[in-house]
Amino acid sequence: MTLQATLEIAGVSKSFGGVHAVADVSFFMARGEVTALIGPNGAGKTTLINLLTGVLPADRGTIRLEGRDLAGTPAYMRARAGIARTYQTPQMAQGMSVLMNVMAGAYRFGKHGLLGSLLRPWLVMADNEELAERAGTCLARVGVSEEWWGRPAADLPYGHQRRVEIARALAQDPKLLLLDEPAAGLNRSEADELASLLVSIAADGRAVLLVEHDMGMVMSISSHIVVLNFGRKLAEGAPETIKADKDVIAAYLGIVEEVA
Amino acid sequence: MTLHKTSRLRRDWQILALVAALLALVEFCVSSQFHRSVIILSMIHSVAAVGLTLLVGYAGQVSLGHGAFVGIGAYTVAFCLQRLGLPVVFALAAAVVLPGILGFLIARPILRLSGHNLALGTLALGAVFYVVAAQVRDVTGGLDPGIVDLPSMAFAGLAHERVVFWLSIFALCLAAAIAASIVDGRFGRGLMILRSSELVAECIGMNTARAKSMIFAVSASLAGLSGGLLALYLRSFNASAFGVGLSIELLMMVIVGSLSTIWGAMFGSFAIIVLPNLLEGFDQAKQVVYGVAMILIMLFAPNGLGETLFRVFTFRRKSA
Ligand SMILES: Nc1ncnc2c1ncn2[C@@H]1O[C@H](COP(=O)(O)OP(=O)(O)OP(=O)(O)O)[C@@H](O)[C@H]1O
Ligand SMILES: [Mg+2]
Predict the structure, then answer these.
(1) Which of A210, B16, B152, B236 has the most CB atoms lying inside 10 A of its own CB?
(2) CATH code assigned at B124
(3) Cβ atoms of residues A213 and A46 within 8 Å
């Protein structure tokens, strides 16, 4: 089976002042697979997600989505091109219901613009119906049952907010889904449900990037693991390779290897 | 499912029909000249306040300068009627289009600011407009005499006030219909996301810079329409009607009404217009009272006073 590289990152760097948050990182991601991005706190994982989504400009390097160079493409255009994400701290919009938050995720599929909604308001109604349908499907998929849909999203328990965020990202029907610590704050059974959800999302034919500290989850569902440390790529490979890697173990235990 | 689904837009249309019917009824029933003028002024200010609710409440961008767009609308109508001899309908259309275009052009640079800086920037915008309007006597007539003797709207046996009343009902319903289709559609949902986080809005595919400009333009258009009606109603006015005071009053109308539904603006406008008429000597204390009220409301009723009262009231009834 040949895997098509959905995402291709080459030599990407980003510094904040003197901090090299991401330094010369390169890897591929294939559709249909979960790729994990791991590393200790401050390793540059969130920064890399920000570079991929375009909310931060990279200092150097190229990012290609299905072969297309994204340099100079603003964040909203990347979202429309099929990149969706979740956030390390859930970002539920205030004053919006769960369903509306997820409908907002389907923004790019709405057929009416601002002028259209002024001139032909009945189209808004039809459009809303369709987007609500799409949002409902995504919510059902992440396991948020209908009784929650009308509630203010910001008031939901933490675990539910994480799911709603994934539903909102799914509503974008992304080619590339970037998840920033989706299991943080979840209990064991919730984390297990999440793991099988991510496997099924990848099975849709999407490329999934999983930033996660839960090593059990990472090792069990990832096809490929990239390890960052102080912004640099420390190691890369299949879970078994990574588990056995001396550098990775050292970085995680905080042991600095003595150089002979 | 249908419950959370499309009911919003339909519900807003129902409210709109109700409001229209109510206002028409009021038009037929109210005979006192004074009551009539209070209601007309409330409706006219509501048009601008509805637009400002979109900008401040939905998109989360504060403006302390919208009095300027009301002024531009008013002068546009005067210019179209007196200099160009255009029919009223065209004059009003121009009062919508011109402020909209100006708003769109100004929005990009000014909405780079946020928070306090945005408040100060828009405040400065309003102040500059006032100075310019007072100076460019050629178009505005300066402070004295200003614009005088716009034609009476008396038409087909209806007195000036009655015609303006109907025009205002129509304009207010139009403004509400526009606002409802925006906030209940995908653009409105995008704005609500943007209000919480521009980053999230960008990442769902919304061009936030453009969206903010568009909504600024829409709110400027509605302010312009409001100004156009004000000009038609007053027939004589000068730049002092569109100073910083008006901008603050418009913002007060939104805050006193609601930051999260367009219907609060009507309540807010009515309250702000009626208040000075009820309280003797209120004009002197106005700025202080508004300042204190604004702080209290933002502290204790951040969704707007009207909405919070409404919530408390309906909650009491339900639990009773
Ligand atoms: N906007 C910023 N300005 C300055 N420094 C930043 C900024 N964002 C991140 N950094 C720095 O860049 C480095 C990488 O941060 P990043 O948030 O990407 O790490 P992370 O791998 O996501 O960590 P964690 O596991 O704690 O979430 C850190 O040293 C951080 O302090
Ligand atoms: Mg992080």
Answers:
(1) A210
(2) 1.10.3470
(3) no
